[in-house]
Amino acid sequence: GNSVTQMEGPVTLSEEAFLTINCTYTATGYPSLFWYVQYPGEGLQLLLKATKADDKGSNKGFEATYRKETTSFHLEKGSVQVSDSAVYFCALSSNQAGTALIFGKGTTLSVSS
Amino acid sequence: GAVVSQHPSRVICKSGTSVKIECRSLDFQATTMFWYRQFPKQSLMLMATSNEGSKATYEQGVEKDKFLINHASLTLSTLTVTSAHPEDSSFYICSARPRTGWVEAFFGQGTRLTVV
Question: Are A37 and A59 in contact (CB under 8 A)?
């Protein structure tokens, strides 16, 4: 079945450091891939997405490239801020109507000034 | 993006009572909505898929008589936690995917349920 594996945290960085959170997936067909972010006590917000191989999703300085050859969708940011502290979830959609997204376990990012 | 509104954001109830949580898609129609449960510092656990006009589909291990789901319209799904107990305390999140034009899902703000 489809699954998502992402690196376990917590990830602790200083402000302006480079961020990478690894995510790999297993899926049949051609899934869409997502990164969601969750701030404390809130729901999930879509951070970025990619719907086909070699697509690069980007938003708020974050980027991730859909790599079919390595089945990966790693999240990167060149310079993190304290306000980026949150839990980040990698997710996959089979694109079939009526199916839920499949999530990784989440990675907690803590950025200190 | 599309907006999903969940209410209430926080509720405290006594053990043995029932609590209803609403999930509304504000600017799109959703034939399918999803209910998740999240334990502290853990990922989202899919509880059930709510289908407009038909019975919900529950994941293995989720008690359908404990967690009643109703999807009466294309913009509203409700989750009722019946006869709540302290072990039902958790963060519940709903999600919806628009019928057409979007591949992503949109999430409500979540409901923090505390059973005392």
Answer: no
